[in-house]
Amino acid sequence: MGLTLIEKILLKNSLSKRLDDFIYAKVDFCFGNDITAPLAVKQFERAGFKSVFDSRKIGFICDHFLPARDFKAANNVKVLKEFARKFKLKHFYDIDKCGVEHVFLPEIGLIKPVDLIIGADSHTCTYGALGAASFGVGSTDLAAVMKEGKCWLRVPETIKFVYEGKLPQWIGGKDLILHTIGKIGVDGALYKVMEFSGSVIKKLSMDDRFTMCNMAAEAGGKTAIIEPDEKTLSYLKAAGVNKRNIKLLTSDEDATYSKIININIENLKPQIACPHLPSNVKSVDKLKKIKVDQVVIGSCTNGRLSDLAVAAKLLKGEKVKKGLRAIVIPATPKIYAQAYQKGYLNIFQEAGYIISPPTCGPCLGGHCGILDKGEVALATTNRNFTGRMGSPQSFVYLCGPAVAAASSITGRISHPEEVT
Amino acid sequence: MIIKGKAYKFGDNINTDDIIPAKYLDSQDPSFLGSKCMENIYHEFAKTIEKGDIIVAGKNFGCGSSREHAPWAIKGCGVALVIAVSFARIFYRNAINLGLPILVSKEAAKIKEQDRLEVDLVGGLITDTSLGKNFRSEAFPDFMQEIIKKGGLINWVKTKKEG
């Protein structure tokens, strides 16, 4: 009987060389950020560990509450910097060098197909877009991996999602994944891997694939994965990954899936997740009366260059609606520079957007755009739980960059067609 | 081990932003995190509960972010056990890794707010003394029982190495 792509990677890394219900597996790269890694360091020290498994395979990526919003945030970076120095970690990055972790790590070529990646952050599943097996864990898990280079994993079942049909205009990876989460619910893929496939995925850009895999967490998924292809290879080449280090695997034709879900996207309209669950998804045309106080374009879900390009195209020569606050957050310093060179930042600025430095910022209610009681945000981020972006009495709607940009012009949730 | 406490009921999809709002994640202090536990959805929760009380929730408890601050907050405010119809995966592994007792039980949905519970963790039997009923929970797989018996992941890793 054949194996799925995820099963093949887990088998390759399983120390017992078997795929039992649980495996203890070799880890190719592990990392944490400025909120999860300090707790991992604490656990590491409390355990009395004196060494790390490989100083080249551990990353600290400081992105959540940075540039430091207060003393505590600054101290957490200092704790990580000192640990990195003590154990000679190769991959310590402060916010000015990295930006948002899940955009940055692939960008610098640290993630490649068939790798087993462990990250102390739930959106670690993003790297499935490169054909890696990547799993989000907690801080104690990260502490143990930093010491041992190994991690316990339950071998998951896989749900195959097959997307077919012609991709309508204005529809991107965000609409596909929101539509999917709306269909299966926030626990629809609990403990399972979401394998995205079909002709639509093959045509989808890498940025859109990252967006889709990123939000597997919002369906309860253990991770997501897409079989690597020519697009993956050219992305890896641009990221400086040596061709000799790239292995390509695919799911076998007779692999076992717990379910196969076919989705036709021919008539799909832009999708919005309404408060307070990512599965509370409606088409944009059902929400046209919703007034918006704040628009946020950014995050590990939609802060990539093509997201900014889509928004800039709509915003060119337009103005943000009076009374609305619009924030754009290029996800990494590199994307910031590219957006500058391509003139996107100029367009945002002239339209009336605030251009934030790379950070997770408002996505998790950290800083740079916190909502007050009663305020409504429309954001290209990934979660809209109660109080996610500030006050427990505020409201977050999730969407793709085109709807976010269009709505910032009209002041209410709008289809991009309304402003073109 | 027997845990005795009152039940505090929560619904489905209680997420980690509900359990501990992100703004507090710069702390690693369990008692501070505990004082903010459930703040956004049950403002006085940390002040209301007594040490040893039990959270009884619906499906997908702990969904959302990977923040281990969530199980630390629950431990930190004095909750002795979380019973849920199902758990989100990272919360589940964090609880096992930290040694926060959790039980998966579909039958536990019948438990009412403030019911007195007596729970035999080893046997997985939940006795609701207010209702006079017993509820079963799912047994943990052998692999996880090994980690639970060692008192969490760090001890498991340490003894694995020595053994």
Task: List descriptors.
heterodimer, A: 420 residues, alpha/beta, Aconitase, domain 3, 5-stranded parallel β-sheet, 32% helix, globular, B: alpha/beta, Aconitase, domain 4, 7-stranded mixed β-sheet, 20% strand
Explain briefly what this protein structure is.
Chain A has 420 residues and is α/β, with parallel strands linked by helices.
Strand-helix topology:
The complex is a heterodimer of chains A (420) and B (163).
Chain A: H1 5-13, E1 22-26, E2 29-33, H2 37-46, E3 58-61, H3 71-86, E4 91-93, H4 95-98, H5 101-107, E5 116-120, E6 133-136, H6 139-148, E7 150-154, E8 158-164, H7 173-184, E9 193-197, H8 199-203, H9 206-214, E10 223-225, H10 230-238, E11 259-264, E12 271-273, E13 281-283, E14 294-297, H11 299-302, H12 305-315, E15 325-328, H13 333-341, H14 344-351, E16 354-355, E17 376-379, E18 395-398, H15 401-410
Chain B: E1 2-9, H1 16-19, H2 30-35, H3 45-48, E2 54-57, H4 69-76, E3 81-84, H5 89-98, E4 102-104, E5 116-120, E6 125-128, E7 133-136, H6 142-149, H7 153-162
Parallel strand pairs in B: 1-2, 2-3, 3-4
Antiparallel strand pairs in B: 1-5, 5-6, 6-7
